[in-house]
Amino acid sequence: MTRRRAAVTAAAAAVLLAAVPEPALAHGIQSKRDLPIPEWLFSWGAALVLLVSFVALAVLWPKPRLEHSEWRPLPAVGRALGSRPVEIACGLIGVLLLVLVVYSGLAGAKNDNLAPTFVYVVFWVGLVPVSVLFGNVFGAFNPWRAVARGVSWAFGRLGRGGEEPFPYPDRLGHWPAAAGLLGFTAMELAITFGREPRGLAIAILVYSALTWFAMSLFGIDRWLERGEAFSVYFGLFSRLSVFERRGHTVGRRRLLSGLTSVVPLAGTVPLLAVMIGSTSFDGLSVGQLWTRDLQPHLIDFFQSLGFVVTTATQLAALVGLLMMICVILGFYTVGIVGARTAGGDFTREELARKFIHSLVPIAVAYVLAHYVSLLLYQGQAVPALLSDPLGHGSDLFGWAGWGVNTTWIANSTLWYLQVAFVILGHMAALALAHDRALALYDRPSVAVRSQYWMLGVMVGFTCLALYLLSAAAQG
Amino acid sequence: MSGRQRGLIVLVAALVAVGAYLLLRPDDKSSNKATKPNSAATTPQPAPVQKIQVKGGRVVGGLATIKAKQGDTVRFQVSTDKPHEIHLHGYNVAKNATTTKPASFQLKATETGIFEIEIEDTSTQIAELRVEP
Predict the structure, then answer these.
(1) DSSP per-residue letters across B41-62
(2) Residues in chain B whose beta carbon is closer than 8 A to a beta carbon of chain A?
(3) Residues of A whose CB is below 8 A from B56
(4) What is the pLDDT of residues A169-179, one digit of tens each?
(5) What ipTM was assigned to the predicted interfaces of this complex?
């Protein structure tokens, strides 16, 4: 008996030893991708989307319920969370992390560097579920805001504060944020420069400089609200949360009601198209439609223009990314043009803006379904990377040896999670579009007819999400 | 519409969804039974070595897919027209290919998932290894 136990222990030790990963050779962020959703689950998911949609048409409420948001403060906790010391502490942490990431990127090794994982996994993906659950957390930690407020406070003390020199032009709207997100996603998905720690650090420095410059022109809060890409991005997601900060207090609001108060501006529709289109391209780029049918021809084309193969590959990816964004934008526009035929006195532009907030849950669903495993797997690398941020072999906290276990979740569990995210996003989007239609049109019959079109748009987006995650696309 | 009618619609829809799920879901046991005797009857044949060709820093014929079942021994070769280091991610195996000698990989597919195979110096993906359970 004891001998057997010893054998088992030895075997377990051997497995453990085998499981300890060798030092990674890769500078890539993700070492493994999930197996795609099998076709039968894809068809079931798509059928479920249709079913949910028709049931929603039958049972959703007949009067708008989300348009005016009630907000009730959380008593003691709300005031504590919203207080000045907490704000300053969060801001300091944000600045510290920014400095750490930039320093790691510039001074650290090319491999096993903190910067790419922190930016592309913890920040870009991790903050999405955090925002959806807990509200605008990034707003509190935003290092650009913290620095700008610190500087403006210091200047105010010196008696040199004052009005911002320029009013924010209406025509600019959300365009700077859309451009910022496009730049970021291009770095993540197309331009290899942005995936290297050093390139990433340089990009962060350039973006920081631009942000502070724009803040000095248009004012800190105005720029955060409209121009700063990540504040706008996470800000939109945080509107799905039931928690909202008003003044210096954190309170609760009705689920989904936060999104109805989104003020659409010039550029808001393209912004959402960038958000959904970039994730779609990331999905498309691993499928055969891209790798066999599109990418080789695009690379050939760019090579024939005289670019070397690495540049041609990046340009091809950039074209693919832009193409996918245009597809999303085009599809939404078709839905809006259709909804206009239902009646009501709105221009296409107006109507497109009125319904754009309903795409936010779909964007969340795309991100979560697409990146859930990246978060659950690569997220585990964060303690080790924090302990050795430069990849030089230091071990500041003793966590440097922590490995990444990429087998702890069954493939099927991930598939069901992905389908669940997509369907939940779809339901939230339907509810929001339905509610807006009721508020927008005087006659209920027009509201219902306009909704058939929006329903078509939502079903299209949702099925595209499932398709891109499935074996149907990845072969 | 009354609350009761609504409840009924939701209930019917839920039943349809569950029914469709049970219908569509492949039966694990039967599919295992169907495949297992076959693989047990024939002595495990080593899978043919898949060959991947790299020319001018690109893979010939678009991204290659190497498929394997968990537990299989995977073998593939990458021949190149220039010396390159070829890296299989996840399994973390790197081999050098020269103009005369291709990079030969042989490994046991222990972990499921999709793993990229790249030209290391340019981070260009040339193939993927797909290990299914």
Answers:
(1) HS--PPPPPEEEEEETTEETTS
(2) 1, 6, 9-10, 13, 16-17, 20-21, 24-26, 56-58, 62-63, 65, 87, 89-90, 92, 94, 111-116, 118, 120, 122-124, 128, 130, 132-133
(3) 309
(4) 999 999 999 99
(5) 0.77
